[in-house]
What we know:
This protein has helices at residues 13-21, 37-42, 63-75, 97-108, 128-137, 154-159, 166-178, 196-206, 226-233, 241-254, 282-296, and strands at residues 25-30, 82-87, 114-121, 142-150, 182-189, 213-218, 221-222, 260-263, 273-275. By secondary structure, it is an alpha/beta fold. Helix 8 (196-206) packs parallel to helix 10 and helix 10 packs across helix 11 (282-296).
Amino acid sequence: MNLMTNEKRYNTLNNYYKLIFNSKVFKVSLNANFTCPNIINNHGCTFCLEGSGEYAGNPNDSLKEQFISIKNKMHKKWPSAKYIAYFQANTNTNAEIDYLKNLYEEALVLDENIVGLSISTRPDCISIELMDYFEELSKRTFLTIELGLQTIHDDTLKLINRGHTYLEFKDCVTELRKRNVSVVVHIINGLPNESKEMMISTVKDINKLDIQGIKIHLLHIMKNTKLGYDYLKNPFKSLTQKEYTDIVCDQLEILNKNIIIHRLTGDAPKEALIEPLWSLRKFVVINEIDKEMRKRDSYQGCLE
């Protein structure tokens, strides 16, 4: 698959959606008030601020209310847009299977312009029974399962208290792909004690798996997190913008050219962010990555 242009020298999610749906498509972040088993049982990931999905909807509102609130903002500019219901906050498979089935089916019929579901979860929190349901569901709608990995290095996974191993992640991907369910992996650049070579090796190993999409994040050091407390006591070096740009471009150059890029950097609440403050200028970060790829005259997968 090649959705690249001279401006965007990698397969963007926007272009992929246009190819599949022939329309502008938005992911609508929904908050179904899930918890995270790693927070409940293991104090949570060291970098995590009250679970992922800070920009998801208000859990006190119904799914319908959350969806309509966001759709109304988008509809004015893109009246013919389509939508993917995105269960983003915390671990969105952390419940009994009958409850989950009812929830996902409800989301599919929130609006006639919903064309799919995206479900964010952990690789150690999807039962075989739920995977079997996902296999059936993927035949009826556009379904992607987003799995947090962060790094392939087990020493780092232990350090950041992820609560699972790389092997558990690989096993989960294998089972989902046996059922032809699309998988998007999340990784983080700049984790403590990780060298540039380690970050590159994470992408090299991802290439060996049957992955359909990737989200590349920058480590955000935030207040009221274990990582934030540790950083304030004993500051460690965080990535500069130039270092991050170079690492991401190196990763893109070796990334399988069929993988869709869902994200090249993340968001952090300004009031909670300790470092790196340059990451608040998200569009500048992305523009610098695009400029560097053009400067190198390189494309996603050119060095695969």
